[in-house]
Amino acid sequence: MTGNSFGKLFKITTFGESHGKAVGVIIDGCPSGLEINESDIQREVDKRKPGQSIIATERREEDKIEIMSGIFEGRTTGTPIAIIVKNTDADSSKYENIKEIFRPGHADFTFFKKFGIRDFRGGGRASARETVARVAAGAVAKKIISKEGIKITGHVIQIHNIKAKKFEPEEIEKNNVKCADSNAAKQMEQAILNAKAKADSVGGLIEIKIENVPAGLGEPIFDKLDALIAQSIMSIPAVKGIEIGRGFDTINLFGSENNDGMSFEKNKIKFKSNNAGGILGGISNGNTIIVRFAVKPTSSIKKPQNTIDSKGNEKTIKIEGRHDPCIAPRAVPVGEAMIALVLADALLIQKTRSV
Amino acid sequence: MTGNSFGKLFKITTFGESHGKAVGVIIDGCPSGLEINESDIQREVDKRKPGQSIIATERREEDKIEIMSGIFEGRTTGTPIAIIVKNTDADSSKYENIKEIFRPGHADFTFFKKFGIRDFRGGGRASARETVARVAAGAVAKKIISKEGIKITGHVIQIHNIKAKKFEPEEIEKNNVKCADSNAAKQMEQAILNAKAKADSVGGLIEIKIENVPAGLGEPIFDKLDALIAQSIMSIPAVKGIEIGRGFDTINLFGSENNDGMSFEKNKIKFKSNNAGGILGGISNGNTIIVRFAVKPTSSIKKPQNTIDSKGNEKTIKIEGRHDPCIAPRAVPVGEAMIALVLADALLIQKTRSV
Amino acid sequence: MTGNSFGKLFKITTFGESHGKAVGVIIDGCPSGLEINESDIQREVDKRKPGQSIIATERREEDKIEIMSGIFEGRTTGTPIAIIVKNTDADSSKYENIKEIFRPGHADFTFFKKFGIRDFRGGGRASARETVARVAAGAVAKKIISKEGIKITGHVIQIHNIKAKKFEPEEIEKNNVKCADSNAAKQMEQAILNAKAKADSVGGLIEIKIENVPAGLGEPIFDKLDALIAQSIMSIPAVKGIEIGRGFDTINLFGSENNDGMSFEKNKIKFKSNNAGGILGGISNGNTIIVRFAVKPTSSIKKPQNTIDSKGNEKTIKIEGRHDPCIAPRAVPVGEAMIALVLADALLIQKTRSV
Amino acid sequence: MTGNSFGKLFKITTFGESHGKAVGVIIDGCPSGLEINESDIQREVDKRKPGQSIIATERREEDKIEIMSGIFEGRTTGTPIAIIVKNTDADSSKYENIKEIFRPGHADFTFFKKFGIRDFRGGGRASARETVARVAAGAVAKKIISKEGIKITGHVIQIHNIKAKKFEPEEIEKNNVKCADSNAAKQMEQAILNAKAKADSVGGLIEIKIENVPAGLGEPIFDKLDALIAQSIMSIPAVKGIEIGRGFDTINLFGSENNDGMSFEKNKIKFKSNNAGGILGGISNGNTIIVRFAVKPTSSIKKPQNTIDSKGNEKTIKIEGRHDPCIAPRAVPVGEAMIALVLADALLIQKTRSV
Fold this sequence. Notes:
The structure is a homotetramer.
Chain A: E1 5-6, E2 11-16, E3 22-28, H1 38-47, E4 65-67, E5 71-72, E6 75-76, E7 81-86, H2 108-115, H3 131-146, E8 151-159, E9 162-163, H4 182-197, E10 204-211, H5 225-234, E11 239-244, H6 255-258, E12 262-265, E13 268-271, E14 279-280, E15 283-284, E16 289-295, E17 305-308, E18 314-317, H7 328-350
Antiparallel strand pairs in A: 1-2, 2-3, 3-7, 4-7, 5-6, 8-9, 8-10, 10-16, 11-16, 12-13, 14-15, 17-18
Helix pairs in contact in A: 1-3, 3-7, 5-7
């Protein structure tokens, strides 16, 4: 109700501030009998870990997950799975001086207006640190959907003005920007370093492909698969736009160009194209689902900015802290996690939709 | 749970098929004491009525709303408001021949895969006819938000390759394409007629501005205001992309360009720009909220298309029926309604967020 | 959220006031492919119809149900099922004089305090008339659970001080008080008529048996099967208490008496007793579920009562209108419907609880 | 959805098994600005702590709560409050021998049928140990409702055949059975010790009074205040019945006896009686709310019992472990907590029910 839960049958509820004791998640509704252990979850969480390269924040969190409940002898029991990640490297001292100041591009001002109080340390609940809980939960969701053969591949296709030109999935984990084009990856890294050198930041574009989704998932009319994907992705910090399949570009097409014709090939249904991005009428059609979303340039920059404080004064601020000059690569596992959550839930609901 | 409800406190549940007896909605959670009557709702519903111009479908529905409950002596009583619109001009005969055929770009195939059965008449539940219930409910939501001074203005900013160049809001209701630029409107109409003449269809881009939203609305982390707007808009038939503020274009900016600096002007907080589109960290910041979304070209076209039927045969189909060659203009009031629903709900929730 | 929906996957949302245009319900989440038609629903609705005997209200509602959506060619389509019952015999004139007066035992005062406004005609939303929508929805739920062999039998076991001494289920529909003991039934009718003659009213005790429930239904820890049954039954107008199995009487037993031992009989699990009433730890154990609930004496009586009005005056009131002097018999089908709703939902959820 | 969340706006989600690492709760929707600290919560949790007297289990849990998030500088921030209680004195060895055996009166069999797997150690999720999370959350809820002046008083009014005859609230915390009648308390303790001596157990009856509840709380028709109280109370382990006000006894009254007449006394509304128990039509009427519920005798007894195992064998079982021979006194703070949760939520929702 008040925003910290997501999903219906496979439902997560997360908690935690950047510089509090811990962040974590309760997963309610995970089916019993699913084989899973801490390392399955840790592996996914490690993908978004800060401090993995020179282009990321220097905060060094171990991000060690602890399962508190719901798993017994290597299997889920059907009861709530609680996962906790303690905050160990939080350095709140750098935030004392911005206690009363609203950082531009951040949620400082809006949390203050909403709640009349805010935990200013490290951005509090508005910090991207909360996404570690999403990724941990997403790891469990991935276990469920992978049983159906569903495979999620996220990658960065643009950083600032550098675009990927190839899709070689084996490259994604080999570079610091999670790009499937090794040449573009190098230029992207350079673009980020250039921005950092200028005390500035850049944004990026992410694409997620979801293969082998069975036709029939999604709940019209408000919980259409694309509608929930849109919600889930837009809820990730710094995301400002989302499109499915051909997306905004469909405006430039005629209906006869945009519609994906159907035929049979070796007795299997075949779409002649995939402009719909795997979803029709809000329900998966069996084609690969294609999602793209825009991540704005990191709001925390060292360049001086004009702003105000809560006492009514105008201020100039240079944000110190430890921040990624481009958050897009670290948003890839978060995007994958959110989509895994949407799909695990949709799969469970679909089990109940026919007698 | 299974997709036909939207909202938490101000919650709607809709029903109805295109060629069934009626479409309708129950609004649960509307505060008591709100002055409203049938004409307030009828006026909004009339904005999306089909058959209003040569460029729209020829189906002639009167779309007469009936309030069944929840309003007494001109005021809401706090109990559920049920609104019904009977289907009067449904002509199912044209759908007999597509009973077993999956129309490209439509939800025929996916509903069949989901439910194993479908009401093929006029697209059944997947028809855009269901949006009349959203608009009726949105009219009640608009009453609530207008008490706070919130104003929603939707308009078409692009049809196919024709873009609006001016924003003169008084023009919007004067043309058939709901465009705020009268010159562009003429070209857009022509583009639609050209597509129709070629038995084809075109898509469009819609922008919605929401003015005077108080800072503080939206529920991080999953029900952020932009996340719910994204869900609500993406749930509208034919929408393939959504962005907030500068949206996808933020990728091209540096952080120092994208962040909206703050200052005071005559003792009021002032943002130097509005790249964020009125939302920071998922919470409204008091600035105008800017939403843009892409509507794909209408799937129903008279041009022959390759498809299959449910018996395993390849088919060629020409879709007869009565269809808008461009659905974008009619999606404007629907988009406004969805945003009104999101905001009415957010306003109510915000009443409970501080002691 | 605000009280007019019930259930998770098989979810109903009801609307309607006693003297408004109609009462009705939307069922969302009903699986597709279920065979059902209007007469299946009408038959159940007829069981609670007013005006069936000399001991019931004289209001004569036809209670004709109309299905507006969600059923096509005799089967559910998986989309929302809307059912409407128009109010035809509402006579509001008798309520003009109590417009400002709070009837003792009624919700007049509390609705006024809650909403600041009330539809006083016939009790508005607080009238037991709303239960027609529950019964209509329950008829669909019964279709689902009967496919699993589940059978629900409700009957009156006490009216005022008259208790049933036998359980002959075939008797239930043969008398006006839905009692399974024909002798007791006669005395119960007389007790009701006696109360009526004294311008007074009486209450009753209802028992519902639910046979053939598979073990495993119910969702600890808050949506335990007995917890949801308790909510569902206590939500029925005039109900003041609910117990499961041996209920309040377990206080008088030792643990060794109360625990239901287990054994095998012809290879089937057998409980030596059923003090638990078919539910252990909030989950069905395969034994017959036993529910009992108390229905208070009808609040509307012709005897003069002391009360107040909304203007601050003390008043004496004699309630005219047309009212059942004992509502318990008519609460039987409502109780059955609520339990059917709980079980249909539990069955659907249980489909998703293991991989 | 799957049972581990309760509440709408003030919503809790709990986790944890009896012998897992921890039990805990996330509270989402707590208003910001509420003053609260760990000791406020610890104090309530201590009230249900095991091992406090010779009549309770010998398990010695420290039940030390840890707040992980949502509270900053002594005030709630509006973000989720996570509270954790580690399990420290779990001794699973005594459960090895019942790994495959279904204890009579317990949820062993039903969890096994539901999930196909169960964490048998200490009853797993079905253990009353989970109620510590409810009490912790209830402590926060009590802070909210006490700001409105609401006061909750729970006490034991019957153990086996011993009934309290006086209500002296200051006595409640002075004896081991939470009885407001010191003489009865002594006899109750003796009755429990007698049962223990016979390797048996007894049950009890609890009454909760809630004073100073403002009129207007509760959401008809399914979330009536009494309906949610019924759900919340029936969800407590071992509860088999619940009644409001005069409850089951209303069956014995005429309507003219049962209706609570109204008058004015010193300009304040006054009810001549409180048979309704403070709730009319599912909405609080301003009178004291009276709830009574039955707690069955503890299922775990040392007396030999007949049962079966999961392999198809009949067995005799004597339950060793460490168990309360009467759980009723420890159910008092749990009942209070559940009611506090219902009321905190109802208060928040009521803020949104009028314009």
